[in-house]
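Form 7-S
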Amino acid sequence: MNAGRFDKQIKIPSAPAVAVRVLEAVKDEKEGFEKLARIISADPALTAKTLSLVNSSFYGLPEEVSDLGKAISILGLDTIKNIALSFAIIKSYRGKKTDGFDYDHFWRRSVTAAVASEMLTKTLRVRGPFFPSALLMDLGIIVMYMSEPRAYLKVFDMKRATGKDIYEIERQIFGTDHQEVTARVLHEWGIPENIVSLVQEHHILKKDETQGTILYMADLISSIYHGSKTGQKHAKAKSLMAELYGIKDIEFDEFVDSVASQTQKTLSLFELPPGRIKPYSELLSEANEE
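Output:
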């Protein structure tokens, strides 16, 4: 990456205030538990959203949890911290739709990827901060757009015209891409390095390590619901899921449908409109009826 050009063109924004407080709280090894609970509890909306996600089917708790302290003790400090960070960052980057950038569409796509990543980890029994990583992995796109809106709109135009991967066009125009920008932003904000390392190369499929495939596959599955060439992407995802994980045929179809169903529920937690997302089987059925 051309660091000089990066610094000149792309401005690193300050971390959201709540995110800063959350990250500072968990640095305290003795009182981090209590401090995190106090910070979240001070924001009723954040408390409600955090508990709603904790009680969702993602975590499969045997009974509903209504106390943040209990939620932290069950799921752990890191999980609750990552949930709170996710809500805080999305809230800070919910801009209004402009002529060239639809923030709600961006976050719908990100939430879908996060849901897909979490479902993959459950299916594959893999542990790691994949939900927040998938949710934030494209944050660099917003940062690049906010820094150079006209230049970044050219990225969208060239992608539509050429069909190239967006990160290739970004490098051509900016000398860097949103993977690197996201990683740098999250690193400078003090986001844990295990998240930074996952996001910085999420467009590279590392077939030799399961963890290196999850964000790539989550992004691909999300693109089925939020992009063009849906049929081609569905076919590619189906082929790779069979090759990488042995998930094929009916099991794959059910998985992709479940991603849409779970995304519909999760979007409401982030106060995002559902858009037109619905299970792929329903989209296919509607297309066949036309």
